[in-house]
Each structure stands twice: as C-alpha cells, then as structure tokens.
Amino acid sequence: MMSPRLTRLVLAAAFGAGLLGASACAKPSAKAGPGFAGAAEKVYVPPGKYDEYYAFLSGGFSGQIAVYGLPSGRLFRVIPVFSQDPEKGWGYSEQTKPMLMTSYGFVPWDDAHHPSLSKTDALNDGRWIFINGNNTPRIARVDLSEMDTKEIIEIPNSAGNHGSPFVTQGTEYVVGATRFSVPSPQKDVPISSYKENFTGLISFVAVDKNTGKMTLAFQIHVPGFDYDLARPGKGPSHGWAFFTSYNTEQATSLLERNASQNDKDYIAAVNWKQAEQCVAQGKADNWPAKYAHNWIDEAQIGHSEMLSGAKVLEPSKCPGVIYYLPTPKSPHGVDVDPTGEYIVAGGKLAAVIPVHSFSKLQKAIANKEFTGDASGIPILKYESILAGEVQKPGLGPLHTEFDANGNAYTSMFISSEIVKWSLKDFQVKDRIPVYYSIGHLMIIGGDTRKPDGKYMLALNKITKDRYLPTGPELAQAAQLIDITGDKMKMLLDFPTIGEPHYAQAILASAIKDKQLRTYSLAENKDPCATREEKAAKVERKGKTVHVYMTSIRSHFVPDNIEGVQLGDTVYFHVTNLEQDWDVPHGFAVTGARNSELLVMPGQTRTVTWVPERVGVFPFYCTDFCSALHQEMQGYIRVSAAGSNVPIAFNAPK
Ligand code: K7E
Ligand code: CUA
Questions:
Q1: Cβ distance 313 to 220 under 8 Å?
Q2: Which helix (H) or strand (E) holds 362?
C-alpha cells in the first residue's frame, strides 16, 4: 500500500503538471551520448529503399491518423478521419461531408486516441484499422489498401468514448466504454444527483467478417464510474474483455483530488460471449437511442443514415456477465499479455504494477471469492486473482506492451521512463529514460499473440528542450527503442502530428502490395461523374448551376464558363480522368468558403461555390501534376442577378 506521504508526492508530481517530472528528468544526459553508437545504422533507410514496417499513430486532438515508416520515422501520409482536412478536401467535398454527420449534426473534429488493427486469430491481418473519437463518441474504420476512412459509427448513450476501439482476437467486435458517466439515457437532473442518476455504458460494435461493416450489437449498463481503457482477452481469455475504471468515488468536481481517495478502483471483466447469449435470449432492453452511421460506398460516395434504438443489457438480468477486479489505484491502461493469461493494469497513482491472472480469476469466480458488490456487480477478492505485483517500478505507470520473450514493458508517465519486467517473476530487468512524460508505448504486434521482438515506440507528451523551439507550442514525439537485447537501446526520436496517444504497426510486406493505385474510371458510378471530355457540360437547374468537369494533364474541360449569376449556387463536379498512379489533380476557385478538392485518378469529387461578387474568377489545379501544371487553369464569369448572359462553356478542341 502506498503511504499517505508517497501518495501526496505522487499526486503533486502527477498534477503539478507533468512538467515537474519532465524538468527533473532533463538534468541527466538528455542529449545523445555514448549509448547511441550504432543507432544511426539501425534506423537508416537509404534513399529509394522501403521501411520494414508501417506505423499508424493517432493524432489525438488532430482527429486523424498519421502513417510513418519504421525504423526511419519518416511521415508518409495523414489519413483524415474525424477532422476536416483541407489538404484533401475531406469533410469539405459533397462526397465526404456525410462522413462527419452525427446525431448532433455536422461535427468536423474529434479527439482520436487508439488506432487498432483488425485481427484474425489474435494476429494483425492487415485489413482495417479502427480508431475512436472521444468527444462526440464515434468509431471509424480505415481501409488499409486505400488508407482512407470508409465508415464512422456514432456510439449512443456514451460520453467520452475513450476505452475504444480495441478489437477482439477475431475482430468479432470493437469495444467502447463511457469515460464520463452521464445520466443514461440523458435527462435534465442536478449534477449533485450523480450517485442516483449517472451511469456508464460499455459498448460492443460488431464487425462484419467480409465487409468490415460496423453495427452496434449491444451495450452493458454499468455503475457510474469513469471507464477508461479496454483490452479484449485472447487465447484462453478470448470471449472476455477488460475495462479499467477510476473515480469509483463518484466525484463530480476536482477529480484530481476527489477521485484519488480510494486505494483501489476496478477493472471490469466482461464476459461478452455470455452477454451475446443473454441478448439472443431477449434479456436486453430497447433504449430509444439515436445515432449516425456513415459510410463510403463503392462509388466513393459518402452516405449518412440516422439509426435508432440500442439493445442495453442490465447486468442483473444476466448474472455472471461482469465482475469487478479491485486494482490499485486510479488505473488507466489495461493490457493482456500474448498468452492471454495476464491482465496488467497501470494504476496512475499506484506504487506497484498489479498483474491479474485469468485462470485465477476463473477459479475465484467458481469459488465465489467475493468481498462484496458494487450495484449488484460482484467484487472479486484482490488476493485471489492476483498473479503478482511488480515492486518499485517507477512513478505513474500507464500502459504495458509485451515482447516475444515473456517480458513486459510499462510506460511511466511521472518518472518519464519505460520499465522492462519479466512475466515469470515480476522482477524489473531494465529501465530506459524517455523524453518526456510518456503516455502509451507500442511494440510492433505487442498486443497480438506473437509480438515482433525488434522495436518499441515510446509516445511522449512533452518534448521541452528536445527540438528546435517553435513558439509556445512544442511538438509531441515518438522515440524508437531497440528491444532485441537485454538492455533497451534508444535509436531515434521524431516529432509527430498532433498528440500520438497510441499506435499500431505492421510488417510492410503485409500490406504494401495491396495498395490501390487508381480508382477505375470505367467503373466510376458517381452520378455526377464525367467519364470523357466530350461529356463535360454545364447545366442550370433553377438557382443552381452544375459544372460537370474533367481534369487530365494539364487542362480542365470546360475551362471557360459563363452564365452564372449572383444568387446561384455552383457545384463543380470534377472527375480526374487519369488512370496512372500518383497523379491526383486539385481544384480551387477564388473565394470558396470551404477548401480545395484533391481528386484521385478515376474519382469524382464535388465542391460547392456560392459566388458573392460580379466578375470573372479563376480556378486552377493545386497539385503540381506536370510541366504545364501552372497552365492548368480556367475562368468562370459571374453576372448580376437577372442578367441575360446565357449558360455557356467551351468544348475540347
Ligand atoms: Cu493513455 Cu487516451 Cu490511451 Cu493518451 S490514453 S496516453
Ligand atoms: Cu493538375 Cu496540376
């Protein structure tokens, strides 16, 4: 148990701003020292050569995913997910706007934390990557052959979808947990009635084996704590999922103090196979939830539908579906080792790293070794389920990943280090400082049953003095660490886009050869597509003008347009006729209040333009596509409302 004094110290370090921890760690040799011999060679990927791995880092408050190569740390692509991205027209073009619809309306931003690769038999299968939106609860699915977002589902009855979207070992489900308990279903009550009225929901979103399509399968109604992170079991623990909780004190104010009172909070162990059965037996209630489901179809067009109704299971109607595992103290991460036997928690304020045993958990349930219950949910006896505790690991344990040799690696936020320990004897074997204030760490395949033994990535919150300063905002960072030897070795650090909470990585060979190169123009089924230049046209329909335009190196057809009037809304439907890899064309027009379009070969994208001035306005290609890219331009003439200038456009010569 932590002494009151140590607890206070930990609290002060944790919440006096992680900066305390950071500057304390800045004193020793933060700069490259003798330990870096040979590091450059290990991360050097010569010009023209490929990296060995793709890494997908969440953008945190950027709402996106960034794709890097490892070991080089080179950035390849930012995949727009929950946030509008003017670089690609994501969330601005008519075809992609529906993707950001929610029951609250159009929500063009979110806070994305946990990329999660699809799995088959507890191994990464390279099909999709899922990621959560915390703020307006959502889960997105990105197709790994296009590296584009294909589907977003809103999670109803939830608030702060943080413990998400970790996938089960066969991608049966992606999970979600309410970080903030709220009145469920929502209603107008005093905040002081938290204990009576606020509850949480743990959500299971089913994933179609063939298409990846996500469906809200069921939710489990749980007591009003803050449910933080999640991991499904694997191997023997397949069929279960584990969710950390904090604020079992049920405070609503000054949680830094008021939710740090209890020595232990809980991990909720959910038997989702049993939940499935209870739901199939009709034991779930139907809640009148309303939530958006958005997807991109085969024609590359986004759709949004509003769904209603959620199946909600009360644990009292399905005994055995959930147990609480007491866990010190305000646990954040929960991670399951490659064998599926060990469940490791990162108690932010805990003096030890507790490791629960799945087999002991099963025995304790069978023997009813309970110490009580929380709102009817049995609380298991800590000693009965404990496999061991890692003593003196450091300060502020958050997240754990695993290598292929029975070792675990835990990130320590406050003491800014990674500690390596053995799953055999729970003894610390090594530690390495990281710069600074690490959140998640990631071992390639470290959440699968067969981790790659080579590299670990530290995902750091604070960089302070590590890079050239850039005003008040400094970059977050990833650091690549060699884990092949007994001693961890720092190889590289590189700044990231947004805040990289978690990351996933996969062997490049698993997905590089299935990358889509172009969309088929012949199969372009966008109703506004123009498949050849001679089909280009401009049509007036009342107060709207539709421009059906083509682009190919290095011209638009048409490139002179007249007859638009003030008061009109103009839709530019631009089809890229190219069928070559890596030849997108852009489209931008003066005064547009949205963004450019970036149209992939064979694709159609539509941007809306409402002219506000009389005159002649240029439009042009934004993506340097050929030697005569600068010539890829045109004009659109805007006349006064009611003018007699007829619709006119030029045909190809
Ligand atoms: Cu620890 Cu959102 Cu998984 Cu950040 S979370 S670090
Ligand atoms: Cu097309 Cu530049």
A1: yes
A2: helix 358-366
What is the position in ligand 2's atom list of the atom closest to the CA of 623? 2
Per-residue pLDDT reduced to its tens digit, 61-110: 999 999 999 999 999 999 999 999 999 999 999 999 999 999 999 999 99
The pTM for the full model equals 0.94
Query: How far does CA 156 lie from the centroid of its chain?
Result: 18
Minimal-distance CA residue to ligand 1 atom 5: 501
C-alpha closest to that of 161 among 181, 185, 190, 144: 181
Q: Which residues contact 152 (CB under 8 A, 6 or more apart)?
A: 81, 82, 99, 100, 133, 138, 139, 140, 141, 292, 293, 294, 295
Q: Which residues contact 48 (CB under 8 A, 6 or more apart)?
A: none
Ligand 2 nearest-atom number relative to CA 629: 2
Query: What percent of the chain shows pLDDT beyond 90?
Result: 94
Atom of ligand 1 nearest to the CA of 502: 3
Residue recorded with tokens 């990585």: 505
Ligand 1 pocket: which of 58, 135, 166, 332 to mutate (most atoms within 8 A of CB): 332
Query: Quick one: tokens of 480?
Result: 């690549």
| Paired sense of beta strands 569-576 and 544-552, if any | parallel
CA 114-120-124 angle, 5° bins: 50
Number of neighbours of residue 16 by Cβ within 10 angstroms: 10
Question: Would you tell me how many other CB atoms lie within 10 Å of the CB of residue 52?
Answer: 18
332, two tokens:
């954040």
